[in-house]
Structure formats: C-alpha cells, structure tokens
Amino acid sequence: MIGATSLFLLRHAEVEARYQRIFGGRIDMDLSPCGHEQAAALARYLGAKEFDAAYSSPMKRVQQTVAPLVKAGLPCPAVVEGLREVDFGDWTGLGWEEVRTRFNVSAFQWLDLLEREAIPNAESAKSFRARVESCLREILEAHPGQRVAIICHGGVIRMILSILLGIRLSKMAGFEIEYASLTEVHCSPDKSEVQLLNFTPWRDVANGQVG
Questions:
Q1: Are residues 201 and 47 in contact, defined by beta-carbon separation less than 8 angstroms?
Q2: Any idea what DSSP says for residue 85?
Q3: What does the alpha-carbon distance between residue 71 and residue 39 come to, in Å, rounded to a whole number?
Q4: Whose CA is closest to 152, among 94, 87, 79?
Q5: pLDDT digits (tens, 9 = 90+) for 76-125
Q6: Architecture, CATH, for domain 5-204
Q7: Hey, how many other C-beta atoms are within 10 angstroms of the C-beta on 170?
Q8: pTM score, two decimals?
Q9: 149: β partners
C-alpha cells in the first residue's frame, strides 16, 4: 500500500523593505538582506532532509529563496505558473492603512473580501482556487507516497491548506504563514493532516525548537 504524500509548503523569505506590509501580489520584487539570511537558514535546515521532487512559483522572490535550497541539495524545482501569488487588483502596491483610507475596509479582512469578490479588479477567489487546485492535483497524482517541496507565497499556501483541509479560504486568516516558513501536510486519498505549521528555522531553530 502506498503511503501518504508529504507536502512541504515553503513561503519565500522576507522581501525588500519598500514592499513590506503592502499588498505585493504580482509585483516582482527582490528579497531583503534579511530575507537572504532567512533563505540560507531554511536551506541549512532542509539540507538534512531528502525530497523526491520540488515545484516553485516563477516569481523573483521565490526564485531567490530557491537558490540556496538547491545548493543545499533540494531537487531543482519545476517552475509552475499556477503557483504565482494572487493578483490584488486595485490594492496592488498599497499598504494596510492606505487600503483603509481609500476603500474604507480593513485590510486584515483581505481573505474574506477576496472570497466575496470585494477587492476591485482582483483575481476572484474562484479563479485563484481553480489554478492552485489544478497544480496541487497534478503534483499529488505525480508523486504518490513521495516527499515534495512546494516553494511559493503566503496566499498560495493558505489556498492549498483551504483545499486540502476543506476549510473556507476566509478561515485561513487564523493561520499565520511567515516569511521563509515551513508547513508540512501529509496527504492520502482519505484525509490530509497538518504535521507542522509555520515553522521558521531562521527563528525557531535558534530558539531551540524542534522542527
């Protein structure tokens, strides 16, 4: 009997300062100096682990996070367009307070607003789910019982969890997905189980926590 497929969901590291705490979405930004250090710490942590395959978003912040991972032994990821971050439409490039001022809504409710199609000109939650789910199903079908890394974005990881756990996307607001974090999910035909959530080697290993 084939065992569960282990998905290792990795968010890219911290982005350059001018894009922090804004809705970056489809903006193709670089990592910050701290982000490069986070990516290196993630690579050191994952260097002792074996993977059968890897997939990544094509966006620059993800590819810069991927580079040290590959040097540490991660299989060179297949670049998948469907793993790009969600398009925030008219919110793109705006900070949290700017969103409140211009649109009279709380940016902290962005997942709920996206689900209700209340972000002007943004990608719909339905379209976002369709493209992520298509990628996810292809990955699971290609790697039964294997260990697979998916390096992408906070929004994409939340959508993957929403799909696998059968929980509405808006409820994923309760799941913190930090820069350069690792979330591990074991997927079998009958169920999906979260084994590790939002583990950050750049912080948690230094503090003595075990991942």
A1: no
A2: P
A3: 11
A4: 79
A5: 999 999 999 999 999 999 999 999 999 999 999 999 999 999 999 999 99
A6: 3-Layer(aba) Sandwich (3.40)
A7: 18
A8: 0.94
A9: 8, 54
